[in-house]
Amino acid sequence: LDIHAELSNVSETSVLQRAPIITTSEATTRQLVKDGETVVLGGFIRESESTSESGIPILRSIPLLGNLFKSTSKAVTRREIIFFITPHILRRIE
């Protein structure tokens, strides 16, 4: 069984090009599998980081004192995608 898996992700739009940025991960493998056996294909890991700021409008923009009226939070997300593939041989009935 020849397997070629591709995972594409649309991320933010480029300001200069006004086109979406597409990131792609690929994996190719060849496995010897019996009819009905399951193959596990993993390793597609995506990590993303985001920062958000909240606070009192206007007051959070004051130089030096603004930090007293706002808070910043940072989040890191990690995702792993695993494929389970179960091939079946189709036989022609005569």
Automatic annotation (TrEMBL):
Pfam families: Secretin (PF00263). InterPro entries: T2SS/T3SS_dom, Type_IV_pilus_biogenesis. GO terms for biological process: protein secretion. Residues 1-91 form the Type II/III secretion system secretin-like domain. It comes from the Bacteria. Belongs to the bacterial secretin family. This is Type II/III secretion system secretin-like domain-containing protein.
